[in-house]
């Protein structure tokens, strides 16, 4: 079993301290490099311990690489958060390892969440807003929300879900937003799914009907703080006329269109989303004061 570090070059300064048992360090500079690098590592060493330095995009690549290599049962992923949002790591209260679920869609996996509709449109807009100097993370997301509100709202598609009690339901119409969540946060700290758990074998299904922009803005502040759902699993009465929630096992979406998974954009006509229970071992690193591992392999 080896220990490897995969470092997004934008956050290389955060990798100055690393465990002295490190076998090798790899630096990535473009999208997809972490996916390819970690896949190769895990195919050669299925018991590898991978330190990933980066944001939610790097975590997405790392998770998919581990699963592609068939190393989910034996490897361990240790996250050193370095991105602007770092939403996935907000789900961890300490640095203890967690056997975490994943959301499988097609031949890919999401660690945190998958969304369609307004939320997805905001992510697409955020990518361009983040190119503006000094506007990052939550600020970029908030600006993108306002810009997206200026466009026509909602998207038509059909979703059939199997809930945790075995009940099947089909919803067909125009959705303002539609979220399938494994973790509780997205968008740089929005508590979109306050009841979510990374390892309960289910995903949170939250969707909203079309409402006026004024009503949506009133809802949005509570949504950011996670006040739209109550601890008993019911929807806050302020939003119950248009917001819906249940815990599900699978979802099948027809006419999905643009879909956002952990901040990455994909296009599908029809797609199934399912929960893969205890798929991967993950933990968030605490700072280590040791600089003895400095050997880089390209």
* Beta fraction: 35-45%
Count the domains: 2
| CATH first level of the largest domain | Mainly Beta
Q: Could you say what the CATH topology of the largest domain is called?
A: Tumour Suppressor Smad4
Distance between the termini: 20 Å
Low-confidence stretches: 288-298
Which architecture name of the largest domain does CATH use?
Answer: Sandwich
Q: How would the global form be characterised? A: globular
Oligomer: single chain
Sketch the topology as an H/E string, one letter per element.
Answer: EEHEHEEEEHHEEEHEE
What is the count of β-strands?
A: 12
Helix content: 10-25%
Task: Kindly list the characteristics that best describe this protein.
disordered C terminus; Rossmann fold; alpha+beta; 12-stranded mixed β-sheet; 5 helices; Tumour Suppressor Smad4; 298 residues
3D structure, described in words:
This protein has 298 residues and is α+β, with helices and mostly antiparallel strands. It folds into 2 domains: 3-83, 3-Layer(aba) Sandwich (Rossmann fold), CATH 3.40.50.10330; 113-277, Sandwich (Tumour Suppressor Smad4), CATH 2.60.200.40. The chain is 21% helix and 37% strand. The chain contains 5 helices and 12 strands. The protein has helices at 33-44, 56-68, 118-129, 137-149, 213-224, and strands at residues 3-8, 22-28, 49-54, 76-81, 98-105, 108-110, 113-117, 155-163, 168-181, 203-209, 243-261, 264-284. Helix 1 packs parallel to helix 2 (56-68) and helix 3 (118-129) crosses helix 4. The two termini are 20 Å apart. The model is unreliable at 288-298 (pLDDT under 50).
